[in-house]
Amino acid sequence: MRASNEGLIVIDVQNDFCPGGALAVAGGDEIIPRINALMDGFAVKVLTQDWHPADHSSFAANHPGAAPFSLTQMPYGPQVLWPVHCVEGTDGAAFHKALRTNPADLVIRKGFRAAIDSYSAFFENDHKTPTGLEGYLRSRGVTDLTFTGLATDFCVAYSAIDAARLGFAVTVLEGACRAIDLNGSLAAALNDMRAAGVRLEA
Fold first, then answer.
1. For 117, how many CA atoms within 13 A lie in the half-sphere containing its CB?
2. Half-sphere exposure in the Cβ direction for 151 (13 Å, CA)
3. Quick one: which of 141, 150, 122 has its CA closest to 34?
4. Which residues contact 52 (CB under 8 A, 6 or more apart)?
5. Cβ-contact 113, 75 below 8 angstroms
6. Which of 11, 90, 162, 164 lies 20 to 30 Å (CA to CA) from residue 125?
7. In terms of C-beta density within 10 A (0-12 exposed, 13-18 middle, 19 or more buried), how is residue 120 classed?
8. Residue 46: CB atoms within 10 Å
9. Residue from 5, 31, 2, 28 nearest 17 by CA
10. Per-residue confidence (pLDDT) for residue 3, from 0 to 100
């Protein structure tokens, strides 16, 4: 068992991000056995869950003529327009059935405000609206965080960088993550994480 100040954050291991899902990450389900095995070693375990209303502004389908994976400008900055995914209450938004969810202390749902996307487990994409996760971790005495999940170059990276900026010691287990790699996004995310002081491990 690790020290009581260490937390495991499992990002978005949901059906829509796994093979066969609406926004499938290649090999997304391959990381589940390792994540399941990690859970027993951490005192604090948090799962995040992408949880969008059907009219979410990040869905290409809600922008007439827009192609999935194209970029648009939102009031908070550039936004990728995604295929419809993880709509609240649907099977696609559910955790993958192989993921152990019972050990989790907390489930953080993000992206539920229609007007703003939320990649990070800590803040929405305006980098100002908090999810409440920081306060929870502080109240549990957590100082060190290990990140796993989907996808390395979006929600994992955004979460890890925010955690480092908030003063947590942060490790990302690359072997327990998988990436979308959209136009070089993986290399950029790895560089950004290193620059923020995130430790990358296999």
1. 22
2. 21
3. 150
4. 58, 59, 85, 86, 87, 88, 93, 111, 112, 114
5. no
6. 90
7. buried
8. 22
9. 28
10. 86
pLDDT digits (tens, 9 = 90+) for 172-195: 999 999 999 999 999 999 999 999
Structure tokens belonging to residue 148: 């796993």
How is residue 25 written in tokens?
């990450």
User: Contact 56/118 with Cβ under 8 angstroms?
Assistant: no
Tens digits of residue pLDDT in 101-123: 999 999 999 999 999 999 999 99
Which residues are known to be catalytic? 12, 110, 155
Mean pLDDT of the chain: 97
Rounded CA gap, 57 and 115, in Å? 5
For 157, counting Cβ atoms within 10 Å of its Cβ (0-12 exposed, 13-18 middle, 19+ buried), the class is buried
End-to-end CA distance of the chain: 20
> Cα angle vertex 74, ends 73, 75, to 5°?
125
Query: Phi and psi of 100, rounded to 5°?
Result: -75, 115
pTM exceeding the 0.90 threshold for the entire prediction? yes
Determine contact, residues 156/54, Cβ cutoff 8 Å. no
**Segment holding 195, helix H or strand E:** helix 185-195
